């Protein structure tokens, strides 16, 4: 399912201004398929289940790299999301944050590409977590608590009148990330249930005011 969603997003991404560039030659969706296959091939068995690589390098020919250059940032975001979705579908775990890098290899011809991967631990040797925001951005979580609210001093500032000035925070407790409501007026919800303190699982949906944030354990 994750790869199918990725393919649909990539189709929309290359419509319009990018459509002409992708009438022939290497298609971005081929990269997504290859990343998924790389995860399947390189997965290992860990203490808590199957572990997949979390850092990827994609080598492109100079011609394909030039064609991709105008929207490389968007492509990297979509490829990273495809990796996370494939991990959720297959029950894979990561030991650190997911990264995808595009680089150019002069030895490759048009349409050729190579994918390399490795498992790299996050800071402190802990698996990473992130908050997926409504605008598509992603807030990386680490050792320090992340405060969320309308106040400018918060780490994540929400322009939502139903959110308190200092509404909630996400902090690491042991191997988990926990959402803690900070006495907000309208409360905090996880997957539709109101909570004061809640250990987050991959894919949990956090509702603060009218803002929906997704927690990702990758």
Structural class determined from secondary elements: alpha+beta
Order of helices and strands: HHEEEHHEEEEEEEEEEEEE
User: What portion of residues is helical?
Assistant: 10-25%
Strand content: 25-35%
What composes the largest sheet?
Answer: 6 strands, antiparallel
The side-by-side strand order for the widest beta sheet comes to 7-6-16-15-12-13
Provide an overview of this structure.
This protein is an alpha+beta fold. About 25% of the residues lie in helices and about 30% in strands. Helix 1 runs antiparallel to helix 2, helix 1 runs antiparallel to helix 4 and helix 2 runs parallel beside helix 4. The strands form four sheets. Strands 7-6-16-15-12-13 form a six-stranded antiparallel β-sheet, with no helix packed on it. Strands 9-8-10-11-14 form a five-stranded mixed β-sheet, with no helix packed on it. Strands 4-3-5 form a three-stranded mixed β-sheet. The longest helix is centred in the middle third of the chain and has 19 residues.
